[in-house]
Amino acid sequence: MAATGESPRSGLSSPEAKVGMRVEDLWDVMEPQLSPTEKLNACFESIPMVYLRCKSFEIMEWGKLVKKSYCSFIIEIKSDASLAEAVQMLAQHKILSAPVVDVDAPEDASWIDRYIGIVEFAGIVVWILHQSEPPSPRSPSSATAFAAAANGVNAGNGFLGPESAAATSGNFFEALTSSHLYKNTKVRDISGSFRWAPFLALQTSNSFLTMLLLLSKYKLKSLPVVDLGVGKIDNIITQSAVIHMLAECAGLQWFESWGTKKLSELGLPVMTPGRVIKVYEDEPVLQAFKLMRKKRIGGIPVVESGGSRAVGNISLRDIHFLLTTPEIYHDYRSITAKNFLAAARSYLEKHHEVSPILSGMITCKKDKTMKELIQLLDSETIHRIYVVDDDGSLEGVITLRDIISRLVHEPRGYFGDFFDGVLPLPQSSRV
User: Fold this and answer.
1) Residues in contact with 133: Cβ distance below 8 Å, sequence separation at least 6, in sequence order
2) Which pLDDT score, from 0 to 100, does residue 377 have?
3) Is residue 40 part of a domain?
4) How far apart are alpha carbons 35 and 364 in whole angstroms?
5) What pLDDT, on a 0 to 100 scale, did the predictor assign at position 281?
6) What per-residue string of b and e applies to 386-422 under the rule 16 or more CB within 10 Å gives b?
7) Per the domain annotation, does 214 fall within a domain?
8) How far apart are CA 19 and CA 166, in angstroms?
9) What is the rounded CA–CA span in Å between residue 112 and residue 117?
């Protein structure tokens, strides 16, 4: 990362900094009457996604940054793989989700016929959670229920009280993950409904502005970039990758003019204390993951019982502990949010692994600059930061999406017919 005030032009530049320098070149020739925001919009609209084709990028693997090449990093899961096999593959490659390839698709199929969707840890955990809920007379058939659960359909009222924590323990998850159903249910069996069929993807001809808007305003955490020529995914771009790109642009004129503004000047945090979704430490950790899935958020603060002080943070990337290492809960009678954090931290320390869950909550004040915030998020490899006052009281939360949304805005009628062909979202489902 470039030091404060040092331009990436001064030495060997990362691929991310080269994108920033491309913006800088365009910034210098933009019409002077344009506002800074309009300039940024125009710059990013002028850079096509092909600019990043096969370039090295910093990819987040749970809590650790490793340099990979996009083109060699795309992990695909076959539609006839079992849930157990899918979990093993996701865990092996330390990724949270992967595109699912239809094994029955012809060799020359277009990308929209080649893939049936994306499978993720979160969806599988929701499926497992569904198995722990008692059936009701109005419950759908098992196959439909599995598909609905995997795609985030809310079962019952969607909430679990503290008393429900006693029903979940290490043995509970060991029994589920060793069951015949878990080992034999196929990935294609739980791909019941998607907002887009099979997913929303970019083409290499789309612009950076399109990508930034989809990752912010349209709340997508990652975006596949497809190569129409071969009908396959060429890149996968995440919110974390965009933040890393911005961090690499420190010192460039366009970045400094925006990044030196204080968070309060940019209207952050957007999410105020009363709107922050949280879970209490004595509630089952499943409640946290269920809320994240239902509310489509990536993390939740854990709050002390009977109080308002946050004692930790649980994110979607932590889900894998439930599926891959249920044995770490043997010493706990129930997997509450508090016990989950304790067991996960103990496991990581024992195995000398690095993860944001070890650091607890990362906080900042409103007078921090955007540049400082981006560099902190990038160095700590986290997806959100909690804003506190001088007394340490929670004032809000800032996510990667919030930051990207302050960088660009959607021009009127920008997307035109971009979403043509999108399948309607079933009334009872959410993704």
Assistant:
1) 155, 156
2) 93
3) yes
4) 29
5) 93
6) bbbeeeeebbbbbbbbbbbbbbbbbeeeeeeeeeeee
7) yes
8) 51
9) 9
d(CA 412, CA 100): 34
Q: Report the distance separating Cα 56 and Cα 59, nearest Å.
A: 9
pLDDT (0 to 100) of residue 314:
92
Pairwise CA distance, residues 59 & 67, whole Å: 6
**Residue 131: what pLDDT?**
59
Is 242 contained in some domain? yes
CA atoms within 13 A on the CB side of 234: 19
The residue among 216, 249, 282 that closes a domain is 249
What stretches in the chain show pLDDT beneath 50?
1-12, 54-72, 134-163, 193-195, 423-431
Would you give the DSSP letter of residue 108?
Answer: T
Asked if 312 and 383 sit in the same domain, the reply is yes
Q: What's the gap between Cα 153 and its chain centre?
A: 19
Q: What is the pTM of this model?
A: 0.81
What pLDDT was estimated at residue 213? 96
Judge if 66 and 214 occupy the same domain: yes
In this predicted structure, what is the pLDDT of residue 70?
A: 39
Placement of tokens 């092909």 in the chain: 50
Q: How far is CA 73 from CA 44, 46, 56, 243, 298, in A?
A: 25, 27, 10, 19, 23
Residues 219, 324 share a domain: no
Angle between helical axes of 142-150 and 121-132 (0-180°, round to 10): 140
Q: Alpha helices of 226-302 — where are they, by DSSP H?
A: 239-247, 253-259, 285-295
> How far lies 133's CA from each of 143, 168, 281, in Å?
15, 11, 21
Residue 151 maps to a domain: no
Overall number of domains in the chain: 2
Its domain, for residue 288, covers 263-407
Measured in degrees and rounded to the nearest 5, phi and psi for residue 336 equal -80, 170
Phi, psi of 131 (to 5 degrees): -65, -25
